[in-house]
Amino acid sequence: MPSQSTLFVFSDLDDTLFQTERKCPSQGIHRPAAVDRQGQTLSYFTAEQGVLLTLIEQGTVIPVTGRNTAALERVHMSFNSYRITSHGALITGADGNPDEEWLIMLQAQQAIWAERMEYALKVIARTIERNEWALRCRIIEDQGWPVYVSVKGDERDLASLRTTALALWCENGARIHSNGQNMALLPAFADKERAVRFLMRRIRDTGIEPLFLGLGDSVTDMPFLRLCHYAITPRGSQIHASWT
Ligand SMILES: [Mg+2]
Question: 166 and 95 in one domain?
Answer without folding.
Answer: no
